[in-house]
Amino acid sequence: MPAPESPLRHNFVLLVIYQVALRVGWIFKTESIVMPAVLDSLGGGAWLRGCLPLLNRFGQSIPPLLVSRHVKVMPRKKWGSFATTLVMSSAFLALSAIWFWADGQKLPWMAMAFLILYGIFFVGTGINQLCFNTLQGKLIPTNKRGRLLLVTTVCGAITAIGFAWWLFPKWLSESGGQFQFIFGFSGICFFVAAMISLGLNESADDFQEPRRNPRQLWQDSLDVLRRDRNFRRLSFVGAAFATSLMLFPHYQAIGFQRLELSFSLIVWWVIIQNAGAAGFSFVIGPLADSRGNRAVLQFVLLCIVAAPLLAIGLSHYPAVGRVMYPCVFLLVGLTPVVVKVFCNYTLEVAKRADHPRYLSTLMLCIAAPVLLSPIVGLLVGWIGFDAVFIVIALVVLYAWFCTFGLEEPRHHTAGALADPIVDV
Q1: CA-to-CA distance for 134 and 325, rounded, in angstroms?
Q2: What Å distances lie between residue 274 and 156, 158, 250, 280, 337, CA to CA?
Q3: Number of domains in the chain
Q4: Position 183 in a domain
């Protein structure tokens, strides 16, 4: 039976506030500006910066798979969201404490301490996303998830942009950064989000599943892909989409090397990227609720295809490119929204008891191609931007064609494709 209106509204509002707090903290740790600047300030080389995406993808793929069974049998998933958000907060508060203690010194062990804590942060982030998406599937009915995506993305982007506009100029400049304040502010935002999650109105589950070792968990994911043809196709589409993530650090390189744009524009690119996510959500949210998530996937994947092609095109016409290049980041801003759409589709096609296993398998498939990002970087240096960007755009275009073979869950009313039972 559907959730009573009052608890549903209460949970909807708290989930929005929770994600807004996360978004504000997240914009201050973006890997396109703050994190590389931190390592550069410590004298780290390019290989050290290359560790950032690897830690990111590892944390969001392997740990969720290993704990998927624990998330399933956890009576109240909000405690998983609380604990993992607290881990995210603790990692950045620890970084802030180290930088305050160093007081401007570049100590030889700080780079390693940063990478360890950053790795812990993304382990927490990966498990947090699994807990949160499972919780969303439990508390929010299918036909309201698009609205949740719209409201959280728009409110989160506007709030994050406001704080970035206010605080970034105080803490970050071309000559250096006061990273202790940046780390501390992100940690406080994540702590606030953790506290908010405790207010969710959630009844206890009673799911059972035997314990499994890592090899059995890996086999479970393979079994899901083997048995479920539609989910196997979705996972392939997700993996093909993920190839576009390997281009992230190179969008800026095109702007700097070919268009000779200023480093100071990075802050604006981060703001524009968040504004792009908010703007597209006005289309994506209502479209998801009215037409389904397959239609949304088809729309957003075409936008992802356009991003590398637009970047290459503008780079060959500097007079236009120097003015219009921020449009590339409007499209790049769709990326986190696309991942949410993949998760929302998965919540529809899997039974609620199977949500953790399906979501962790999906994240594993999305993460796999990103492990090749150092090779893509070598190819960019060897054969140039154009060929690599065009090939990846064609891969994502093929993924778009594959979405037409996906089932549309809104056309089904029984079994795994039915709306979840929301009991609060």
Answers
A1: 37
A2: 9, 8, 18, 10, 10
A3: 1
A4: yes
Is the CB of residue 318 less than 8 Å from the CB of residue 255? no
pLDDT in tens, 216-252: 777 878 888 899 999 999 999 999 999 998 887 778 7
Has residue 356 been placed in a domain? yes
Structural domain contains residue 415: no
Which pLDDT tens digit goes with each residue over 304-341?
999 999 999 999 998 888 889 888 988 988 888 888 88
Contacts 24+ apart (CB under 8 A), 155-158: 155/16, 155/20, 156/19, 156/20, 156/22, 156/23, 156/24, 156/278, 157/23, 157/274, 157/275, 157/277, 157/278, 157/281, 158/278
The conformation of residue 45, written as its DSSP 8-state character, comes to -
Tell me whether residue 270 is in a domain: yes
Domain of residue 61 covers: 5-199+209-408
The CATH number of residue 180's host domain is 1.20.1250.20
Residue 172: in which H helix or E strand, if any?
A: strand 172-173
Short-list 351, 356, 359, 301, CA closest to 331: 301
**How far apart, in Å, do the first and last CA atoms of the chain sit?**
11
Output b/e per residue, 194-205; b: 16+ Cβ within 10 A. bebbeebebeeb
